[in-house]
């Protein structure tokens, strides 16, 4: 206990270094810009900026990525409120009440409520991060090769959960990703596999190149094929951005409910901020004493949605950091950032690398304060940025994709790989296949292969070893849950969207995971 | 059932065949895991084909092209893609900065961005790359074959 407290304290001391504070401020501002641009999504932004964290210390790099994640989720609400176009799917529910408030000349108030609720949701989600992550990591310490095999299978069943329209197509995407993950040297036999004569593929497909291609380059292509539309002018507002004490008192129960909802949704694999915002909004309406305000500019509606989607951020990091199971696209990209730094998610992050992990946690807490400050002070500026034309985004994103992938090993092969994955990602999204499933499979494939082959080697080829411990059985049950949960999630999402009015306004940042949002 | 899904199925079976041929060239012990994955992908694709046939009987067959490419503007998409490919080639021969300047200006001009925005965004992107990658990360960006 004392050791944990010391680590927590040490984490805050490290996080408060000038470099880390600058990283938080810059990451949050970049995240908000990405979030408020309706053409871009959080996953895409994190993937695009991943190469910039290469030379940073592991904790600083993760803080930057975490800040972009939190900033982007909040940033989506700015365009949702001011131009009725959610920047990311996570702010779709915010647009319902937020834009009504703007029409009534209360845009400043809506932005203030959104900022304050996002701050509270994000900050409270850190509690569960501090509390549950080490507990789960202790459990993961008991894992051997068979357990790691089942763990990767569980991760892969999540693929079905993150599939937008067809579960089979999601699984097909995952299987294709697994096949791609076999490219490179065989880990047990030392044989070159499927390298097409390229020695640079010796260590397999570079996950960062794949991430940039699948999420960012494909998005540039999607934007390039559509008619360039002029976005609506952001509403000018004169009212003060902020919330009064009485309003905070009124919003507190809503924020607390949304925190619990968002946190649970975040921890659950396959669900994300886009479903949390509608659930938060719905619960706000259900328990509100001012139900008549809903649909006509309710502060509680904005608070419910924004607190829930930001509460997802901390929760979603728990399975990724402790078990190496990213539940959705942004955490998959964040996991890519962790791997780039030479760190393997799992119990080691809480033992050998505990100071780094707790510095990241502390940074994640402080990022919420930066989000509040930058959000309130910069709302008017971000509102103008949200109108940036797709015509400017297309070549800019393409250049950053090329430079980002080139920077990894300073060779053109990585750029070509990124382009191949970009084209693959484009067609995947066109044909309802799932790019996020490919990423998850690329990350989890080697883990599963090693787990399976090591287990079989230990048992002399007897597959009974895969069913030899209670943890194996628990993980098997979780795999079944992973397969079945999307069905329940889809029903729940349909119901909540219907209850919320069923209308998701305008274009949103195209989320490669849940395109139906 | 959408006809466009036939392409998806064909692609998946094609990948299976390609990897199967390459797997059979590996030594025996290294074949097992890839074969397992190939079988898995082939089974899932076959399951999807079964669903497609079921849907075709129940709901009929639609083209699906309108749904997939309905919003696509080939006159805009193809030139932008060609410019991206050209940009990569140009970068190889004339280096990063000249090719980026040409690509940005050409692409923004083609997409009818006003001149001042064209200049501002080109400058912003080049400055961002220089500051973040060349200065901060110390990445030596390609100078191009012609200037080596």
Automatic annotation (TrEMBL), chain A:
This protein's record includes keyword Chloroplast: no
Transmembrane feature ranges: 20-50, 62-83, 111-136, 148-168, 204-224, 259-281, 358-379, 391-409, 415-444, 465-489
Domain of life: Bacteria
Keywords noted in UniProt: Membrane, Transmembrane, Transmembrane helix
Keyword Membrane attributed: yes
Occurrences of domain DUF112 (ranges): 21-440
Record PANTHER family: TRICARBOXYLIC TRANSPORT PROTEIN
Protein name: Tripartite tricarboxylate transporter permease
TrEMBL record, chain B:
Keyword Transmembrane part of the UniProt annotation: yes
Transmembrane parts of this sequence: 6-26, 33-50, 84-111, 123-147
Keyword flag Transmembrane helix: yes
Top-level taxonomic group: Bacteria
Keywords, alphabetical: Membrane, Transmembrane, Transmembrane helix
Pfam families membership: TctB (PF07331)
Stretches assigned to the DUF1468 domain: 13-142
Protein name (record): Tripartite tricarboxylate transporter TctB family protein
